[in-house]
UniProtKB/TrEMBL annotation, chains A, B:
Homodimer. GO terms for cellular component: cytoplasm. This is Histidine--tRNA ligase. It comes from the Bacteria.
């Protein structure tokens, strides 16, 4: 029989076991953080019907969609009826519209699942990746206080993740749009282009942005006003004061400033330190979806990774599926890319495996004792593997070392006669002979010490 | 704009939040059990290349496969290159072959992910469902003691799941095949048909099985010998004794009896009570894949659900992808079907949601106090939601009730003046006024009491 070369499909992140343990711990930390703030879990199927998924005008989105078809459907030449989700927002909209009567509003859900995009295969670009989303959905209305809660949750989660310093950038799109109104930039196409230039500020610098704005027909006064705002580097209080002092009186602008003020004040109530949330008026984000507050989060020591957690406020979640008005605010951690980049940077290392203790079989005659000890350790909550193949002790030790199991239990007939066993910590190089009556406690002490 | 009716794709299990919490707890219990025995996690991509997935001769499997294609590939009329996995065994084989040099053997992995089959849509039949697999893979060889460990893990997991009594049925296919050798049933096609009849015993009864066997050309003596064995209802020791006393001397039969004896003895060493594991010689299972020990698990009070956890020993995991010989033994819990059936039967009920306490806003002037209390409860490890929309207290209470949040915290200006708050347990109907200095401890007592 000729062999097939085994290969992971391109554009996916497949991990070795100890990397997988590290990844799982990261997802667990995110989940625990989301639950700490009372978000409830939702899971949706990996595919949606094509009708549901492709409500938008096609174009960019549709090009990246993976369609799903059974053999029978392909043979019959049918058009695909199913497609893999490309984010968790469309499934959420469908879910909320479908189950509306069974949900309590404001509906606070978290969802940690994989999404799929037919990206060109490229190092660090993924076709399959985890998103870890939270959203709060109101019925008819939703207070701007929730716009403050979202970064408070992210602050909690990233503190727990312990990847070093991070900054949650906050803005409100009403401020930018209201400013353009006030400055007389009224043409819709021009506004889109102006916002796109603003978003480039951090990459291309003030001079180039200014030149582009003038090229778009924006007056010098307007361009300078915009730049003075978006390039501002003050404290949040200073930025809010500067916004208040501006000679812009459009309702939209004032609304945006009001909401941003609510967010910044709310964050104090949530006890989020000022330094981790920063008003950044240059953040515009995706154009049509977000309507108010927007977020982008950066790791201070790894700006090159880009935003690791983004989101914002939207006017109406599910207008394609229901007449109910469902405003919401949410954010998403791109866990696969974040993990991959931090692993590449050496920040995330292989975790210790799930097994904490390996019970070896030094003397086959003592087999019953080994089993009893393994059960005892498990009953005490210690993850324990028992070597069942037996064989040379050196081979058993080598296995423990290769698998990364930190502690090995050894007992020969001498020790058995004394009522003891030896616990050896392979990483620390420590070895202790302990009474069998204290086995679990001493193993735990060695693991934790 | 015309609305699209929101609908979950047929053949998938989508849960409401409190059902999802219950499901998640079930998966967590399974995972914790697997980890307790030192299994390491693996996740593979939802799709594999078609080459990898469809190594088998097509036929039944291929008919149920979902193919995955991007828009571009469909437009170009290409054949699909990717397909959704239909089990976790093929991806495991590919994974082990691909990462062989980086793994420690025996390789003990667990994998909890969804798989996909293009089943005809039907109530209780799923196109997308979770499998929770464990496998131990040896290099070149793997001791039969591991065949005893697998049911020990399942015993631990099902005890923790607490769905009532369960029975793990164990058999060894070598016994059946060796018996057929010894009884002169040598024709390969006939053997396949005989095993298929044997598997029907519990459904159609002895008389019909006997008639079928005779119809297949099996002698009366052979049919009676087979039936006397497979219908045996003794203790494990009695069954093993009866097997030992049989006048069958083929190597395969003796090997099978030897391995079964090892499993039954091993289970004693693992302290698994005799009653939960039972030799059942009528279990034949899938024909080509399993080569030795086989398992099927039934819930004693819900036999109608069928086997909830099945598996067995195989000779060589990854012969399609590598020349290495990789014998293994494994088992799989079909979590989606199990959960769905137990929910339908009323055994699994809605869980309490993730939020344990709702902090209400009785008096907007005390907002800062509410935020501080919510943070305090969270810091103490209590999942806490704070009502940010405010509004009438009756509406806030109604929300807590609808969402199923068990405890509500209320504080008006009177209480604030006294330095207290009121905790109300909505399910128990209990209400206590507690000093703010003891808030977290008293909330925990109320939740746990």
């Amino acid at each position: 029989m000729s062999l097939i070369t085994p290969r992971t499909p391109p554009g996916t992140m497949e991990l070795l076991p100890r990397q997988q343990v590290a990844f799982q711990r990261m997802l667990d930390t995110i989940r625990r953080g989301y639950e700490r703030f009372g978000f409830v879990p939702v899971e949706t199927p990996v595919f949606e019907t094509v009708d549901t998924l492709l409500t938008k005008s096609g174009g960019e989105t549709e090009k990246q969609v993976y369609f799903v078809q059974s053999t029978g459907a392909i043979q019959q030449g049918n058009k695909p009826e199913l497609a893999l989700r490309f984010d968790l927002t469309v499934p959420l909209a469908r879910y909320v519209a479908e189950h509306e009567r069974d949900l309590a509003f404001p509906f606070r859900r978290y969802q940690i699942q994989r999404v799929y995009r037919g990206e060109r295969a490229q190092r660090g670009r993924f076709r399959e990746f985890y998103q870890c989303d939270i959203d709060v959905i109101g019925k008819d209305s939703l207070s701007a206080h929730y716009d403050a809660e979202i970064p408070a949750v992210i602050h909690h989660v990233f503190t727990e993740l312990n990847f070093g310093g991070f900054t949650i950038n906050v803005n409100n799109r009403k401020i930018l749009l209201g400013l353009l109104d006030g400055l007389g930039v009224a043409d819709a196409d021009t506004r889109v282009l102006v916002l796109r230039e603003i978003d480039k500020l951090d990459k291309i610098g003030q001079d180039k942005v200014r030149a582009s704005l003038l090229g778009l027909g924006v007056t010098e006064h307007a361009a300078d006003t915009i730049l003075s705002l978006i390039a501002m580097k003050g404290t949040n209080a200073e930025t809010l004061a500067a916004l208040g002092a501006l000679d812009i009186e459009t309702d939209l602008f004032r609304e945006g400033v009001g909401e941003l003020t609510t967010v910044i004040e709310g964050l104090k109530a949530f006890q989020v330190p000022e330094g981790t949330v920063r008003i950044n008026l240059a953040i515009a984000r995706g154009l049509d979806y977000y309507t108010g507050t927007v977020y982008e989060t950066f790791l201070n020591d790894h700006p090159g990774i880009g935003s690791v957690c983004s989101g914002g406020r939207y006017e109406n979640l599910a207008s394609h599926y229901t007449k109910s008005k469902l405003p919401g605010v949410g954010i998403s951690i791109g866990a696969t890319r974040l993990f991959y980049q931090l692993m590449e940077a050496g920040i995330i290392k292989d975790a210790t495996p799930t097994a904490q203790v390996l019970v070896t079989q030094m003397d086959p005659a003592l087999s019953a004792d080994y089993f009893r000890m393994a059960s005892e350790l498990r009953a005490a909550g210690i993850n324990t593997e028992i070597q069942l193949d037996g064989g040379k002790i050196a081979k058993q030790m080598k296995y423990a070392d290769r698998a990364g199991i930190p502690v090995v239990l050894l007992m020969g007939s001498d020790e058995q006669a004394r009522g003891t066993a030896t616990l050896k910590h392979l990483v620390k190089g420590e070895q202790v002979e302990v009474p069998l009556t204290e086995l679990a406690a001493r193993a735990r002490a060695l693991l934790e010490g």
